[in-house]
Amino acid sequence: MTDALGNLVRFILLPGHRYDTIGVAPLIADLEFGGLIADKAFDSNWIIENMNERGAKIVISQRPQRKAPLVIDEELYKWRHLIENFFGKLKDFKRIAMRSDKTDQSFSAMIHLCSAVINSK
Q1: pLDDT of 73-101, one tens digit each?
Q2: How far apart are CA 2 and CA 11, in angstroms?
Q3: Residue among 30, 79, 75, 74 at smallest CA distance from 54
Q4: Are 79 and 39 in contact (CB under 8 A)?
Q5: What does the alpha-carbon distance between residue 63 and residue 40 come to, in Å, rounded to a whole number?
Q6: Which of 35, 9, 50, 34 has the alpha carbon at shortest distance from 1?
Q7: Rounded to 5 degrees, what are φ and ψ at 12?
Q8: What is the pLDDT of residues 59-79, one digit of tens each?
Q9: Of 11, 40, 71, 83, which is least surrounded by CB within 10 A?
Q10: Rounded mean pLDDT, 43-47
Q11: CB contact at 8 A, 62 and 42
């Protein structure tokens, strides 16, 4: 999860080959925010219901099979590139891109370290 400027706020390591939506609940727990910008992987009814309960603006690209498509702010959705840019910068670090760390703890530490380097530039 990044803030509006594309800086890392929080992340959750997930087991490989799992849906991204599994990590959403612990990721957004105890955080207050005005909106969620996400791609189609996060187009889930429970996420949308949670955002409605919080009063957060929902800017999630819709899956084609959604029966009742939501109206999203197209101009706000364009800012999703900041999140993608952050992940691109993070993958510039070979150790992150290759996932060469042996433990979750060392991989998490490298993500924090690389994020600090990215934010310091």
Answers
A1: 888 888 888 888 998 998 888 878 777 78
A2: 9
A3: 30
A4: no
A5: 6
A6: 9
A7: -130, 130
A8: 988 888 888 888 888 888 888
A9: 71
A10: 89
A11: no
d(CA 47, CA 53): 10
Which pTM does this prediction carry?
0.76
In the numeric block, the tokens 């042996």 are attached to 102
Q: Of how many residues is the chain composed?
A: 121
Task: Quote the CA–CA distance of 24 and 37 in Å, as a whole number.
Answer: 13
How far apart (Å, rounded) are the C-alpha atoms in residues 31 and 41? 21
DSSP the chain: -B-TTS-B-------SS--GGGGHHHHHTT---SEEEE-GGG--HHHHHHHHHHT-EEEEPPPTT-SSPPP--HHHHGGGHHHHHHHHHHTTSHHHHTT--SSHHHHHHHHHHHHHHHHH-
